UniProtKB/TrEMBL annotation:
Keywords: Coiled coil. It comes from Mesorhizobium mediterraneum. The lineage of its organism: Bacteria, Pseudomonadati, Pseudomonadota, Alphaproteobacteria, Hyphomicrobiales. This is P-type conjugative transfer protein TrbJ. Residues 42-76 form a coiled coil. InterPro entries: T4SS_TrbJ.
Length: 241
């Protein structure tokens, strides 16, 4: 009887102790939350993320700078030098075809002394004076013809320059970088310089023709006076003198 009661009591204690043991956790399994440590970790992570973002932004800025440098160094795939020099060469060809008085200073002085003498020799023939006068007239006509030829060539060049000017302006406005804009601007300046050189050449031919014609007229007057003087002589052969 005593044993039965002791066994019953042990069973009862074991039944009560088991559920309580289920609720009791070992000491090493407890989780401890530290707010200050958590905040410090969050702040550290935020700073690290900010540094990464700054590095990314710096790399992006460097990439943009390199792209701009490459764009600024991009060459203009167009050159008007050939067209400009070709126009000037055509005008130079017309200048080289000039007959009569030369544009070369040394040759001009020799030709001037020959065609425009300061005085006539007493033995010169009337036919020689007339022949020289005709040669001067032909030279003056050739000078005017050359002037008109240069004028025609310049007008043709100016018409072609209109399309070239529009093309260069469009390329300058649409330049991808500083180098392209600079090269287009340089070609615009070259076009302006070429046009100024054309005007100077035209003025040179025009003034030359006008000067030559004026000299021809003056020389013809001097030759006429000389021939009149020879024809009249001293006047001693006529009565009343």
């Amino acid at each position: 009887m005593m044993r039965r009661r002791l066994l019953s009591g042990l069973i009862t204690v074991s039944l009560i102790a088991k559920p309580m043991a289920d609720y009791v956790q070992p000491a090493y399994a407890l989780i401890v939350f530290d707010p200050s440590n958590y905040a410090q970790n969050v702040l550290t992570a935020a700073r690290a993320l900010e540094q990464i973002n700054n590095q990314i932004q710096s790399l992006q800025n460097q990439a943009t700078m390199l792209q701009n440098m490459a764009r600024n160094l991009q060459r203009l795939d167009f050159s008007s030098v050939g067209q400009l020099t070709g126009s000037l060469h055509r005008i130079d060809g017309l200048m080289d075809q000039a007959s009569g008085l030369s544009f070369d200073l040394g040759k001009l002085q020799d030709q001037w002394r020959s065609q425009y003498p300061e005085s006539y020799d007493a033995t010169i023939k009337v036919s020689d004076v007339a022949s020289a006068a005709r040669e001067r007239w032909q030279t003056a006509m050739q000078a005017f013809r050359q002037t008109m030829g240069v004028q025609s060539q310049i007008v043709e060049n100016v018409r072609a320059d209109g399309d070239l000017l529009a093309d260069l302006v469009n390329r300058s406005q649409g330049a991808a970088g500083a180098l392209q804009a600079s090269q287009a601007t340089n070609q615009l300046m070259a076009l302006s310089t070429k046009q100024q050189m054309q005007i100077q050449t035209l003025l040179a031919t025009q003034f030359r023709a006008e000067a030559e014609d004026a000299a021809r007229k003056a020389q013809s007057e001097e030759a006429a006076r000389e021939m009149t003087k020879r024809f009249l002589g001293t006047g001693s052969a006529y009565p009343g003198n």
